[in-house]
Amino acid sequence: MKNLTLKQFRYFEALARHGHFGRAAEACAISQPALSMQIKALEEELGAPLFERDRRQVRLTNFGEEIALRARDILRALDDLEGFARASRGRLVGRLRIGVIPTVAPYLLPSLIADLIRLHGGLDLHVRETLTPKLVQELNDGRIDVAIVALPVSEPSLTEAPLFTEEFVLVRPRADEGQPVPNREALREMRLLLLEEGHCFREQALTFCNRPTHAAQPRGLLDASSLSTLVQMVEAGLGVTLIPEMAVGVETRSASVSIARFTNPKPSRTIGMVWRTTSPLTAQLLQMSETVRRSAGALGQAAAARA
Amino acid sequence: MKNLTLKQFRYFEALARHGHFGRAAEACAISQPALSMQIKALEEELGAPLFERDRRQVRLTNFGEEIALRARDILRALDDLEGFARASRGRLVGRLRIGVIPTVAPYLLPSLIADLIRLHGGLDLHVRETLTPKLVQELNDGRIDVAIVALPVSEPSLTEAPLFTEEFVLVRPRADEGQPVPNREALREMRLLLLEEGHCFREQALTFCNRPTHAAQPRGLLDASSLSTLVQMVEAGLGVTLIPEMAVGVETRSASVSIARFTNPKPSRTIGMVWRTTSPLTAQLLQMSETVRRSAGALGQAAAARA
DNA sequence: GTTTTTCATAAGGACGACTTATCGTCACAA
DNA sequence: TTGTGACGATAAGTCGTCCTTATGAAAAAC
């Protein structure tokens, strides 16, 4: 009973509809004997005649009628499946689980999500915000499909696609407005407020200052858990901090702080998408990276215009 | 896209469940390469990867998950279909369209229907009552599955199975009770009330009397459309009539008429089932004829006991 | 009686699916 | 670093399945 085939169902359906072996065979684009044999095989598999053959006509038996109903259901489900497959060719479909680091998420996600929904209607988007190492782990475990992090990640199993590079800007109290912009050495002497450990942005900031990234920080109690908190701490006069360009608009809009850009050398980070090299979404993710690159470019230009 | 096979769905489902080519292949009782090839073929047909292959695991893609849902639906429908086929092996199932002549229907149908329902629960029984020629036509057209008529029908395309033979009895006014039973010749001189033309029972009665069956009947206006009417006409003193043994119980219960049985020669008819020789229900109909034969036998004995 | 129609059967050939054997790659361990 | 094992992909060959054309059988139509 395990040798029923969809082909048999298709032939059967055709014969049921036409009531004539020759015409049904023609409709199936096969020869009449081929159809006869498949029908016979189907009847043997099912253990009962599906048709009553007569010189004058070929009629479904009761049994055949019931089987026809069920067979048509199956063929319809098959058509649906094929249609679904056709419709999802090369498109992002269903669930997309995306991970984003905290220093990117609040600034990139709104436009990113809007773009994705616009381009891939019906996409079931799951967003997860956490630190890079966790995202890498989750990528490797297949718990998320793609992550947006600072490059490089340098995981052999992952493919990286750079999206954009952005500078870090100095955030200092409004009172410092107009003061000369410190260079790296001067910055090292200032009270630099940082994110908690684990944030890649923390390490990048420290690296820019040429400070040991893993050395104990005496004022660890002041480490913030978000850029927003950092800016508020600056506003409160606790020190200065760095934030990425992308965050300037959101985080300094309503804060009385002063923004200054470094010159020579300029601190910066490259944000990129990463995914498992083996991911079948590779093509779509590459396309998606293009989209993000464009919309991030627009974002950057807007930020630059603001500055 | 027209080469999707149920086999591929079964393999696919197994791989989705096991997440491991080797074990899935084992579950399908095939070799691992065979499974690999079918999965590959399926992915090519659908135009998108179903699995993400990794050294560590084999995971469904989003696309694969959706396809898995639909494939499982199809496999489930297939199982149902197979189960239905298995369950209906050799049994009467679904609709059974049965035609019965009017001089049999009222007396046989109650017990026949009860028997059929008892033996083939869920049978969708359609009963049609009309004259023999129409029943034969409907049989040949496939509009009914079986008919119960007086034999012989002598249609080459139909198979006949006798059920029982029953005598005709004379029905005359109560006043005639105890009078000698007329023989055929005497009967010919009496006012014999008959059914309308077309009823085989009419022809059989006339044949018994040796009257021309197709000759114009001067008192055609008196022809009745049912045995019940005939008996009432006898009761009204319009003449005498013949009715089949089977009808005696029902038709004379509440009528003040007298019943007499002929002797030597006894008029009689043979009731039988007929169906298309090509009908796939042949086996079941034969079995059914056995059942009817038995229950009609009981009926006949009861009638004989009453007489 | 002959022809036509229609479905079943027969014989042969092409294609597809399965098998075993082997490869390539990564992970893990010495 | 270098085996070693696990795992999936690939290769080659065989066998079975399904299709084709040709033919048969039986009834209907002419």
Automatic annotation (TrEMBL), chains A, B:
Superkingdom as given in the UniProt entry: Bacteria
One GO location term (cellular component): protein-DNA complex
InterPro entries linked: LysR_HTH_N (IPR000847), LysR_subst-bd (IPR005119), WH-like_DNA-bd_sf (IPR036388), WH_DNA-bd_sf (IPR036390)
TM stretches of this protein: none
Annotated LysR substrate-binding domain residues: 90-295
One term of GO molecular function: DNA-binding transcription factor activity
Domain HTH lysR-type: 6-65
PANTHER family membership: HYDROGEN PEROXIDE-INDUCIBLE GENES ACTIVATOR, TRANSCRIPTIONAL DUAL REGULATOR HCAR-RELATED
Protein family membership: Belongs to the LysR transcriptional regulatory family.
Name listed for the protein in its UniProt record: LysR family transcriptional regulator
Native source organism of the sequence: Chenggangzhangella methanolivorans
